[in-house]
Design goal:
One of its GO terms (cellular component) is efflux pump complex. The protein is an alpha+beta fold and 367 residues long. Helix content is 24%, strand content 38%.
């Protein structure tokens, strides 16, 4: 609700500093509670089973991008990788041997090699038996040579496939070795840790909650009827739970879909740097353009004094005496002013900054 210029008029009266109560008119605002959250927040989870070997720190410790946060014991993976490297070396030897045998078959076919044995029977076999088999169609040396070459090629290809398979296994093991280490995805702090050194974890188990707390936002569930009055980049006022501090906030993101059960729209508001901490409660003043404009008296926030939980102001009476008036406060306005829902009316004069020595009795609220 905007404060008119006349609402801050000050009338000096002898014996104190007084403020003339005026009416303020503007768009009604609705106070909506929300939670301060980090701009970026992630939960790091285990990607493979194992025992926690290293934990970088505790809640609140800050780390830079790509710093090591958690490391699992990787002894078993190292052993598997060493075994796979041995298999790769074996496969390489088999590939070289298969290549040599293939070249031998090309240049010195087995089908032309003579069988070992006695000299005369072997000579008789080469000069008479083998040629007669070829002539009678009982044996085809070209087909046999083709089969031998194909068999040699198969052994070469099998050795190559073995190398590819073992290399794939090594890459899979290397990926698991990388998964055994959880690195900081960005510069931030540890918000919460779920494990300790020595714990055994399973895939999917949360390890750490990590967040960037340099930039903070307020997340508020806004009723659907208030959504049309908001747009990205719009500046509003918010009140933090720390010392009732009032700060400006900016509409950063409006979710495109409303909650189907509560019929609210989630909206994020950017906070100035260094004014709050994640998890704190905050209230955002959202304009309600659907409600009729209200006119309420305005008084300086410094004029309000609390007797326990009851707010009141010192009103200057007709006889020049101070009267302690019980009021009902409304929303806080920019410039250090507060609207009054009941207890004051326009034209009355209140003490702007009542001192410690001022005293008076309670009076009935004016209507």
């Amino acid at each position: 609700m905007a404060v008119s210029a006349s609402a801050v008029a000050q009338v000096p009266v002898s014996g104190g500093d007084y403020f003339v109560v005026q009416q303020s008119q503007g768009v009604p605002h609705v106070s909506l509670g929300g939670t301060v959250v980090p701009y970026k927040e992630v939960t790091l989870s285990a990607q493979l089973p194992g025992r926690v070997k290293f934990l970088a720190g505790i809640e609140g410790d800050a780390f830079k991008d790509s710093d090591l946060l958690v490391e699992l014991d990787e002894s078993e993976l190292r052993a598997k990788r060493q075994a796979a490297m041995a298999q790769l070396a074996n496969a390489d030897v088999q590939l070289r041997n298969a290549g040599v045998q293939y070249n031998r078959e090309l240049w010195s076919p087995k089908t032309k090699s003579s069988m070992g044995g006695m000299g005369v029977p072997n000579l008789f076999d080469q000069m008479f038996t083998s040629p007669m088999e070829d002539m009678m169609g009982e044996r085809d040396r070209d087909v046999e040579r083709g089969a031998d070459i194909y068999s040699s090629q198969t052994r070469v290809q099998s050795a190559r496939n073995t190398i590819v398979r073992v290399q794939s296994e090594i890459r899979a093991i290397d990926a698991k070795l990388r998964d055994a280490k959880s690195l900081a995805p960005f510069s931030g702090v540890i918000m919460k840790k779920f494990i300790e050194v020595g714990d055994t974890v399973q895939p999917g188990q949360p390890l750490l909650k990590f967040a960037d707390v340099e930039y903070l936002q307020i997340v508020v569930d806004v009723p659907g009827r208030l959504r049309p009055g908001l747009s990205e980049g719009m500046m509003l006022r918010a009140e933090l739970d720390i010392g009732d501090q009032e700060i400006p906030v900016r509409v950063a993101q409006i979710f495109p879909m409303a909650d189907a059960q509560r019929h609210t729209v989630t909206i994020k508001f950017d906070l100035p740097q260094g004014v709050s901490a994640p998890g704190m409660y905050a209230k955002v003043m959202v304009p309600d353009f659907n409600a009729p404009a209200r006119s309420n008296p305005v008084t300086p926030s410094s004029a309000i004094r609390y007797n326990g939980s009851l707010p009141g102001v010192y009103v200057l009476g007709d006889e020049g005496k101070h009267q302690l008036r019980l009021i009902r406060v409304g929303e806080q306005l920019p410039g250090g002013y507060t609207t009054v829902l009941s207890g004051l009316k326009a034209g009355e004069r209140v003490v702007r900054n009542p001192g410690v020595g001022i005293s008076a009795g309670w009076t009935s609220p004016s209507r």
